[in-house]
Amino acid sequence: NTIMSLSPASKQLYLTLDFHLSPGRVCDGTLEYCGLDKIYYKVVSVEREAPYYGVEMLQFLNSLPVEVTWEQELEPCRVGTVKTQFFVPPLKPGSYYIVASDSPNFEDGSYISYIYTPCNRLSFLGKVFSGSNFTGVVIDNIEGVPIPDCRFTLIRIDKALFEERHRVVKEGYSNKDGILSVIGISNGDYLLNLYYGDNHYSATFTLPYQSDMPIPNIAKILTDKNNYSPGEKIRYSVLVYMSNGYDVAKLCMEYPLKLTLFDSNWKRLSVNDVETDEDGLVAGTITIPKNVVPGRYTLQIRDDDDLVNTKRPIYVSSDITDTLPSGSETIIF
Length: 333
Known about the structure:
The chain contains one helix and 25 strands. It has one helix at 54-62; strands at residues 2-3, 12-16, 27-34, 38-45, 66-73, 82-88, 94-101, 112-119, 122-129, 133-140, 151-156, 167-173, 179-183, 188-196, 199-207, 217-223, 227-228, 233-242, 249-251, 256-262, 268-275, 281-287, 295-302, 309-316, 330-331. The strands form five sheets. Strands 9, 10, 13, 16, 18, 19 and 22 form a seven-stranded mixed sheet that branches. The protein has a five-stranded antiparallel sheet with strand order 1-8-7-4-5. The chain is globular and about 55 Å long. It starts with a strand and ends with a strand. 28% of the residues are buried. The model is unreliable at 2-8, 211-215 and 320-333 (pLDDT under 50).
């Protein structure tokens, strides 16, 4: 998702999002860079993901309505690359491109990186998928809990059989536990659509589910907000799943983990042994000590083999307004 540039090759710029945006919430992603001191961001709204590349894609992005812009100062990096977090201000439900550049004008010749993302409350994590059985759970991205009564349609989009494209195979609603299940479908390519209120989520996948790629374990940490006061409780949910490149992933059930809270100096304030349930979820609370110094704190979830190692920043201050943080700290890996 990086547009080729005529700028010096010593510069690098790349954006990634582990998860799509949640409406009305500050969301974070990862910026990898080299040779840059400042980055300019904008978010543009779009109906759907565009099939363009290079200069044509840049012209398309610059033609779209801008929802929000901001800037980020970076720590100097001349050798190797540095990873740091960037924060996206709250957005309404929809589809967007996040665009980053070393120029405020986002013109040809500057370094540009972009990423497409929907913004809604819905995610889907599969539990069983074979040539005849497809089962999973619909997740609320904000609360981290299953969503019951979520309407879905499953559409066959096998490109080799044109007459079967866009044929609805199954439609219905998730049950009281957020589970939806489709039995008796054949191998092929499918599109899953989820509808819940104003939120719409789409994911494509192929049956049978297989890949030659290594399957990493991924964790997503959800918290009830971004900013907290000393002595306040953090409500958290954690999802753990395996992904091999498909939009639909497989949940890790009964998976042992350690959840750690660090202060701004990376001092451990709390360590908890937790385990995911049969839906790949673990939820609970952590209390921030009352006598701590305000700053950027970190929640970390990891396993003993370090196959899972995910961090989420939170902010402790006397101002608990859940807004975009004023800056971000650079972390060198």
